[in-house]
Amino acid sequence: MKTANMAIHLAKKKQSLSHYDARGRASMVDVSAKAASKREAEASAFVAMSPEVLEALPKNPKGDPLEVARLAGVMAAKRTSELIPMCHPLALSHIDVRMRLCENGVEVRSKVATTAVTGVEMEALVAASVAALTVYDMCKALDKGIVIREVVLERKSGGKSGEYIRTAAKKKK
């Protein structure tokens, strides 16, 4: 379905995608009338890899892949509006990216916070995604079959839509 048709179809159902105008053109949402409030979001990703690659992580000649990935995730969160066309630039008050070695890969978790008129879900998702991509980049010489999967929003709070928590039924690893 073309973009214009999708916007019209959703409008008939009294739903709409927020980043499209009445003619179906991409449009940045006007948030100028909204009040600033505290907003937080957490996201995660999983980088599946072989036991051999996991074992080699501490011996990587490029440096500690997990620390490089953590820093890449922090840097990426700050540049989200440059990567995602309709994201508003935000002053972020907190970014935390953590890695956890698991039996079959690396779990990436990000948490982002701000006080602003729009949420930080995209910043948290970009942080987790770029951190996972960086783990891949740091380890690809050992195995091109590394898989990045399950990039998801885990939680968000603040704003008009309130609290969202991903349910346990949706979580799989």
Give me a quick take on this structure.
By secondary structure, the protein is α+β, with helices and mostly antiparallel strands.
Structural class: alpha+beta
**CATH homologous superfamily identity of the largest domain:** Molybdopterin cofactor biosynthesis C (MoaC) domain
DSSP, total strands: 5
Name the CATH class of the largest domain: Alpha Beta
Q: State the order of secondary-structure elements, H for helix, E for strand.
A: HEHHHEEHEE
Question: How much helix is in the residues?
Answer: 25-40%
H/I helix tally? 5
CATH architecture of the largest domain: 2-Layer Sandwich
Share of β-strand residues: 25-35%
Query: Between the first and last Cα atoms, what is the distance in angstroms?
Result: 33 Å
Number of domains: 2
In the CATH hierarchy, the third-tier topology of the largest domain is known as Alpha-Beta Plaits
How would you describe the shape? elongated
C-alpha Rg (nearest Å): 18 Å
Please outline the major beta sheet: 5 strands, antiparallel
Low-pLDDT parts are: 1-14
